[in-house]
Amino acid sequence: MRWLLTMRGMRRVAAHAFAGFASAALLLQTYQAIWNRSIYPRRELMVAFVVVVAAVAYGVARAWPPTPVRRRLTHPDCSIRIIAGDLFDQTRSHLVVGFTDTFDTDTGDDRIINRGSVQGQFLTRIYDDDRARLDMDLDAALAGVAPVGVLTRQEKPLGKTTRYPVGTVATLGTPQRLFFCVGYSAMSPDLVAQSGPDELWHSLGRLWAEAHRRGQRGGIAMAVVGAGLARVDAVQRPTLIKLILLSFVAASRQRVISRELSIVVPPAEFAELDRLELQEFLDSL
């Protein structure tokens, strides 16, 4: 109910409530004009009270935040959803998994990669904690990508030392279900992942290009990349979602990327989103 206390929420409730009140008033006045009597003689105050309460209830119901937030585009023909749930439950979609530019995979003691992150869950739930197999698949996918540098052990004591360009996409899996591993953040020598809006926008562009090339227009599901441990600190979660939406729609205007994009948000975080604002933004695209 927090949305109800926002200016946007109150404006939407007021607008719908006024429309409901006006419609009810018009019907009552029409009845009185035709039959020259009120519906409930000598109970006008009660009728007015009931109409006001009903109008407010109607306004709240009409303004209630959508679950999920969605829109169907006609050019191109695709749908976009912002839903509450678990990313790895989206078994009919290709998944987007965020990585750093070193494509580190070690979740031991959570020092390099946090086990609770999307990448950490990817290792556990898709690769059954077989890090050697994941590293082998990543190496094969990155074989044709020229590194931008190799760190020494003095510069980066733990984890992988080969850096790839920010925005590199390593595609794993099978054509039926692909995993787009996007290196959208830079791993510092002290094992802190850092990214920013420019890096994220560039990485999303590379992601959509790879999805167009390999995804066969299948559904794509992704978390809010850049949130949490990726540390795009200058941008809040709703703005990150808008950035993803804008990037996807802009790329889709040029070529069909996917028939459906799902941005999957954990239920607790989904409840905190201003879904009215996101719906209005999505409708404006």
From TrEMBL:
Species per Swiss-Prot/TrEMBL record: Micromonospora humida
Stored InterPro entries: ThsA_Macro
Name of the featured protein: Thoeris protein ThsA Macro domain-containing protein
Alphabetical keyword list: Membrane, Transmembrane, Transmembrane helix
Domain Thoeris protein ThsA Macro residues, every copy: 80-265
Classification via Pfam families: ThsA_Macro (PF20016)
Membrane spanning stretches: 45-64
